[in-house]
Amino acid sequence: MEHRPLGWEQLADCGAMRVVGLRLQAGQRVPEHRNAHPLAMIVTQGVLQYSEGSQAGRAKAGELVLINPGERHTYWADEETTAYMIFSGLPGVRARLWNLRRRP
Predict the structure, then answer these.
(1) Given this model, what pLDDT does residue 3 score?
(2) Dist CA 72 CA 76 (whole Å)
(3) How far apart are CA 22 and CA 36, in angstroms?
(4) What confidence tier does 88 reach under pLDDT thresholds 50, 70, 90?
(5) Beta pairing partners, 60
(6) Of the candidates 90, 38, 31, which has an alpha carbon nearest to the alpha carbon of residue 68?
(7) What integer is the mean pLDDT of 49-72?
(8) C-alpha span between 91 and 93 (Å, rounded)
(9) Fewest CB within 10 angstroms: 48, 53, 71, 74, which?
(10) What is the DSSP string of the chain?
(11) Are 11 and 100 in contact (CB under 8 A)?
């Protein structure tokens, strides 16, 4: 089964950390926003364009983008792009065993 290159899908979490799959189709942009916790994005396909504060950049497949808590940021793709987003240190949450999402 092939997925449309669009959106987010939670893959796993252990309470204090969450792994989310991101798919962007060409021309898709995520509006500027902030997160309350640290975020690491590992690009797995394509090129992720991003802006955080006054800095802009691009990360190719195999590269990592780190976003600090509270920092305004946005990201977009000029070509189909996928990445893993790792949210860590979720506030007020205790670490627990990993819970993996199983696909049917």
Answers:
(1) 44
(2) 14
(3) 19
(4) confident
(5) 47
(6) 38
(7) 91
(8) 6
(9) 53
(10) -PPPS-EEEEEEE-SSEEEEEEEE-TT-EEEEE--SS-EEEEEEESEEEEEETTEEEEEETT-EEEE-TT--EEEEESS-EEEEEEEES-TT------EEPPP-
(11) yes
Could you give the CA distance from residue 79 to residue 47 in angstroms, rounded to a whole number?
7
In angstroms, the CA 15 to CA 10 distance is: 13
Amino acid at the residue 7? G
Q: Provide the pLDDT for residue 89.
A: 75
Residue 33 CA to residue 69 CA, distance in Å, equals 11
Tokens 């690009």, residue located:
43
